[in-house]
Amino acid sequence: MPGRKRASARDEIAASGKRPYQVEALAKGLRVLGLFSERRPALSLSEIAAETGIPMPTAFRMAATLVTEGFLEQLADGGYRPAAKVLTLGFAALRGLDPVQLADGPLHRLAGELDQTVNLGTLSDDQVLYLIRIRNNDLISANIQVGSRLPAVHSSIGKMLLSDLNGTELDRLLTETSFLGQAGPNAFRTREELDVALAEIRNRGWAMQDEEFAYGLRSVAAPIRDASGKVVAAANVAVPAREFPTRRLRQELLPRLLATCAEISVLLGSR
Questions:
Q1: 91-267 falls under which CATH superfamily?
Q2: pTM, whole model, 2 decimals?
């Protein structure tokens, strides 16, 4: 009609509710990835479709594409969870975050999967300073909180961290009093005993505490490394000894712990 102004392409896009230059398929894929969280580490295909409003056939193709590209992995029950490649998104920004912030999500996910207590700690002189504690089981003998300090020589986290030090560093750090304090029936009482254990830990890449800190308590620890390869922290899974013989601890819990610590190390820039 005369005098009526023709609508621009921008006006038409605005009227349709779409943003300029938006790639809808990409937007849908990002919405799928955004569904996962600490509380929802895995989702079924129907949950993905319902949450995003995407039809089931489209949701299936979207999830299959993300699996192929390495951003999702499909579980045995048919569900999906984020895969390792998701960790590369925003990698440069992640490297600037505090290690505790980076470890929090993966360790909460691990604790949920294993239904066991998970801890993160670092060295503070000859003690372990606990930075994260996610308590899932009844460890009566271990009254530990975030901020607690325990003898490094009696804990799996401590031995893991000590194993990354050279002889000179250990000489400077450890004294006779390092072996005193709270300890269990199997605790190391001399530097000679500890040195043998640390050599084994260096060779195999993980540490175990077998009723060394307290009677009835076992744990296994793995290293967290920064971009230089240095062990800057360690995480462990702590369990009641009566329920977890050392063999079960190694076979059932250690592989998941090692994978989680490797994931956190990648976030810190480790290769």
A1: GAF domain (3.30.450.40)
A2: 0.64
